[in-house]
Amino acid sequence: MTSRGKLVAGVALFGLLFGASWGFAQTTQPAERAVGAVSRAAGSILDVVPADAWGAVGVNNLDEFDTEVMRLGQKLGLPIMFAPSGLIQMGLNITQGFNPAGGIGAIVLNGAKYPGAATWGMFQGFPVPVVLAIAASDSKALIQSMSGKETEDPNVSAVTLQGESVFAVVKGGYVLIGPDVEILKSLVVEGAAATQMATEALKPGFVKQATSSKVFIYVNAKPVLATYGPVLKGVLAFAAAAAQGAQAGAGTGPALMMMGSSYIDVLSKQVDKLLIFLDLEPNGLHLSALATFQPNTLLGKVFAAAKPSGKPLLAGLPGGTFIVAAAQEQTGTEFAQQLADMFLKPYLDAMRASGQPAMAAAASQQAELTSVRIQLAKLQKTVQMAAYALPKGEEGSLAIVLTGQFTDTAKAYELIKQNVNSEVQSAGEQQPKVKDFLQAVTYTEAAETVEGVKVHTLLVDLTQLPKLLDVPENKANEAIKASEAIKVIKVLFGSDGLKVRIAVGEKNIIATLGGGETFLKDALAAAKSGKAPLATQPAVVKVSERLPKDRVSVMYISAENLLRVVDRVSKAVGEPGLPFQAGETSAPLVLAVIGDPLGLHVTLYVPTELAVSVRGMINQAQMQQQRSQELRGQTTEPKTAEPAPEF
Question: What is the pLDDT of residue 254?
Answer without folding.
Answer: 57
